[in-house]
């Protein structure tokens, strides 16, 4: 990609990272040599990015902000995102709280159909607080990260109980007191809904500022994150240092912090993409360190950047940032999952078990399972554990299941996990009704067809309804694997 030249008008009065002189080939060959024993530079580490740490600072954000907001004004409505609304300084506190609730949902449900369905089902935070984990999971199905849905429910209940249904008006209270609201979400909600001058740093903004500041360092290290958060903060802070100004006044509408943060997210998402970034149309291209391969001449040794790592040999340009880190190999886990079928002359039903209301995958349904089985004990444990799983759930007819009429299949699923599936069919016709389920469980409302009004920690559902129950993505993969494995010869089991 060709480098973009800047004219004098672009540099006057703006953040100027210096004359463009750093070439990626030089970055890969220069080494720091320092004989001073008191030097801050580590001698054991060959540092190939000889540049001043000042290039990692946004020192004059005003012209950058102006260019960013001018661009954002042309694209804000282009993708038809229903949660994006023009800044309105005249909203009452109740209306701002509702706006905060709407923004909160976008931090976790960024797919438009999910967002729209969510806001129809739970139009206010009080509606969400009065729902159940089953209702929440039913809408969330397909998005993954079900713990987020659980925390949304807990957070809504906290706001209704402790804040009279009005979302806290500042990021500090949100982050410290509302489940499911971290630093990023708090910054987005507080800046967009309440006009607080606080930053955001999601994956898009992280990538954007890593390139903008030419920061090639471990992406998740504290030092790296501190630099990126500082850059994001500089973009939303007022340079005239007047914190007493009313952030909701019309005079500040042109640099409203919520618009700045949304503009950064949009720019990272649509222009500064992971692959094939469209640098030629980026409104911040004039200041981008990675795009211009810019280096400030060195001063004192104390000004030398000791954080950046060498660029990979032969690699340079914008897509070299952020620094690529080799992912750790996912830990392989072997679980025994029993897919239990009851079949009569007319029906085929399968056994699902409900997870607890709190913790991992809260409130979701799954097949009876035993987790993390040592591979050396798998064969010996298969029949015994499959039987024990049923003893934990069923009241009667258990003996007919022990080690009989079963099939096993090992499958590879996401996250490096392996699942050993045991499909068990009752002896004979199985009777007119499936075995009764043990019922010392707390009742909950849920949306499974035929189970209205009461749900126990386990239930039987038809073969056609398994995929529509509140099961997570992993359980859905197990079910599909089981169908493809067993359905073709189910009658021969």
UniProtKB/TrEMBL annotation:
Q: Name one GO molecular function term.
A: adenine/guanine mispair binding
Which family does the record claim for this protein?
Belongs to the Nth/MutY family.
* Cofactor(s) the protein needs: [4Fe-4S] cluster
Organism, as annotated: Rhodocollybia butyracea
- Keywords assigned by UniProt, alphabetized: 4Fe-4S, DNA damage, DNA repair, Glycosidase, Hydrolase, Iron, Iron-sulfur, Metal-binding
Q: Name one GO biological process term.
A: mismatch repair
Enzyme Commission code: 3.2.2.31
Q: InterPro entries per the record?
A: DNA_glycosylase, Endonuclease-III-like_CS2, Endonuclease3_FeS-loop_motif, HhH-GPD_domain, HhH_base_excis_C, MIG/MutY, NUDIX_hydrolase-like_dom_sf
The cross-references to PROSITE patterns, in alphabetical order and at most eight, read: ENDONUCLEASE_III_2
Q: Tell me the domain of life.
A: Eukaryota
Task: Look up the coiled coil feature and give its residue ranges.
Answer: none
Protein name (database record): Adenine DNA glycosylase
